[in-house]
Amino acid sequence: MREEKSKKEKLMLNCIDGMIKEKFSNEKGMTMVELLVSIFIFSLVVVVLTGILVTNLRVQQRIYTTQRYLGEINYAMEYVSRLARMGKRDTGDCIGYEDYTYKEIDGRLTFLDYRGRCVEFFEEDNRLKMKAEGEGGVEGYLTSPGIIIENFHIEPVIDPVEDALKEEKDINNVQPSVMIFFTVKEETGEWFDLDMQTTVTKRGLDVAKISEQ
User: Fold this and answer.
1) Could you tell me the end-to-end alpha-carbon distance of the chain, in angstroms, rounded to an integer?
2) What is the three-state SS of the chain?
């Protein structure tokens, strides 16, 4: 009886073992074609994702650089305007004409500032530059090399002295003002190319001569 039971158990184990071997022997691995297709699809996904990432990085860099350059241009224009608004009527030692406040000399905006310095703003090496002579004088660029400044000019200079003389008016009753123009672009010329214009009028009422009369 025991021997018969043992034979049945062995037979069952042999059957199970045969089924397991048959199952695994029927499983097939990936063919070479399937492997190549899988590698191609994976490579394609990597290339697309990399391209998107690089494009996003370039766009972010362009936005950052443009904002930085535009901020620098805005600062330079504000600096020129602020200093010019506080200009004084010349005594003849700066621009060479008494009672003038602003004058274009050799393409340079020239005036006497509130500290008594003879100030010039002009374009040099495609950069906006300032030069102030006198006590506390200074000279330096207002824009970085990455920004190209071109066609800096004053057109026209609203000249209160000449206008007043033509109309036989008292020059002390005309408020000095000046218009400044220039073109600005990024060094490659691909990101922005702007025509800039600003009008500057003397901040305080120009009544110095009136008070002396």
Assistant:
1) 144
2) CHHHHHHHHHHHHHHHHHHHHHHHHHCCCCCHHHHHHHHHHHHHHHHHHHHHHHHHHHHHHHHHHHHHHHHHHHHHHHHHHHHHHCCECCCCCCCCCCCCCEEEECCEEEEECCCCCEEEEEEECCEEEEEEECCCCEEEECCCCCEEEEEEECCCCCCHHHHHHHCCCCHHHCCCEEEEEEEEEECCCCCCEEEEEEEEECCCCCCHHHHHC
Count of CB atoms within 10 A of residue 131's CB? 17
Report residues of the chain scoring pLDDT below 70: 1-30, 155-174, 189, 204-213
pLDDT tens readout for residues 172-202:
556 778 888 888 888 776 777 888 888 888 7
Distance, CA of 29 to CA of 32 (rounded, Å): 10
Determine the Cα–Cα distance for residues 64 and 87; give it in Å rounded to an integer: 35
Is the model's pTM score more than 0.90? no
pLDDT at 211: 43
